[in-house]
UniProtKB/TrEMBL annotation:
This is Short/branched chain specific acyl-CoA dehydrogenase, mitochondrial. GO terms for molecular function: flavin adenine dinucleotide binding; short-chain 2-methyl fatty acyl-CoA dehydrogenase activity. GO terms for biological process: fatty acid metabolic process. Keywords: FAD, Fatty acid metabolism, Flavoprotein, Lipid metabolism, Oxidoreductase. Residues 40-150 form the Acyl-CoA dehydrogenase/oxidase N-terminal domain. It comes from the Eukaryota. Pathway: Lipid metabolism; Amino-acid degradation; L-isoleucine degradation. Belongs to the acyl-CoA dehydrogenase family. It is an enzyme of class 1 (oxidoreductase). Its EC number is 1.3.8.5. PANTHER family: ACYL-COA DEHYDROGENASE (PTHR43884), SHORT_BRANCHED CHAIN SPECIFIC ACYL-COA DEHYDROGENASE, MITOCHONDRIAL (PTHR43884:SF1). InterPro entries: Acyl-CoA_DH_CS (IPR006089), Acyl-CoA_Oxase/DH_mid-dom (IPR006091), Acyl-CoA_Oxase/DH_mid-dom_sf (IPR046373), AcylCoA_DH/ox_N (IPR013786), AcylCoA_DH/ox_N_sf (IPR037069), AcylCoA_DH/oxidase_NM_dom_sf (IPR009100).
Length: 264
């Protein structure tokens, strides 16, 4: 079975001079510029393997998943088993330890077969895992990244009914209560929320400071007060769950702030 964790990832960038000065001449060569980045043999092989995996395992289920408005559980498990839910995450957190180019190649190949599965993988890796890697404490990385690479899907909660994706205008608030924060508000059009185990919630912890109060909080699906509505009935990419998420006195500890207070 293919697994990015076993293959490993090394990206080779071959820089080439775009122009060549002709001998004993002040004129530049008219030779066309060469590519700045070229795929290695390993990357080409990996791309072909992902393409084959998508055609053999995902393609036969695309219609069924679109009709049922959800990604097949077997497909979701396959993505975890093959290291595709932790592409850029270091091996120490059960990730594949690859680079962003590999991430793009994987999403591109999945998109050829099913954009819903591609969106599921893309959002999980680039919006959720990447924030934990960039902003998380060591304790947060150990606790959440390992689960995100092996069992939990992640969801990024920004868009709201009244402000869309304008982060500066969001209305969800987080009020300090002892050593906890209590979150109230709603989010809409939240991808992966139908199956997510971990949510990153953008909320304003101090509305008097405007956007400088916006903070990112971590909450798990079973946190009391966190509810996910049924998926929207979209025109396409229906297997990618898009739901409203409601927060009714959702209590999270202060250590569940991802990054710095006020820098969500």
């Amino acid at each position: 079975m293919f697994s990015l964790r076993r293959v490993g990832c090394k990206i080779l960038e071959q820089w080439r001079a775009p122009v060549v000065v002709a001998a004993k001449s002040k004129n530049f060569s008219t030779e066309a510029p060469r590519p700045l980045t070229m795929l290695t043999e390993d990357e080409l092989a990996m791309r072909e393997t992902i393409r084959k995996l998508a055609m053999e395992q995902i393609a036969p289920l695309v219609k069924k998943m679109e009709d049922e408005h959800k990604i097949d559980e077997g497909i979701r498990q396959m993505l975890f088993d093959n290291g595709l839910m932790g592409i850029e995450t270091p091996a120490e957190y059960s990730g594949s330890g690859c680079g962003f180019l590999t991430m793009m190649l994987v999403v591109e190949e999945l998109s050829r077969v099913d954009p819903a599965v591609a969106a599921y993988v893309d959002i999980h890796n680039t919006l959720v895992n990447s924030l934990f890697m960039k902003l998380g404490t060591e304790e947060q990385k150990t606790k959440y990244l390992t689960k995100l690479c092996t069992e939990y899907a992640g969801s990024f909660c920004l868009t709201e009914p009244t402000s869309g994706s304008d982060a500066f205008a969001l209305k969800t608030v987080a009020k300090k209560d002892g050593k906890d924060y209590v979150i109230n508000g709603s989010k809409m059009w939240i991808s992966n929320s139908d199956v997510a185990g971990v949510f990153l919630i953008m909320a304003n912890a101090d509305p008097s400071k405007g956007y400088k109060g916006i903070t990112c909080f971590i909450a798990e699906r079973d946190t009391p007060g966190l509810t996910v509505a049924k998926p929207e009935n979209k025109l396409g990419i229906r297997a990618s769950g898009t739901c409203m998420v409601h927060f009714d006195n959702v209590r999270v500890p202060e250590e569940n702030i991802l990054g710095e207070y006020g820098k969500g």
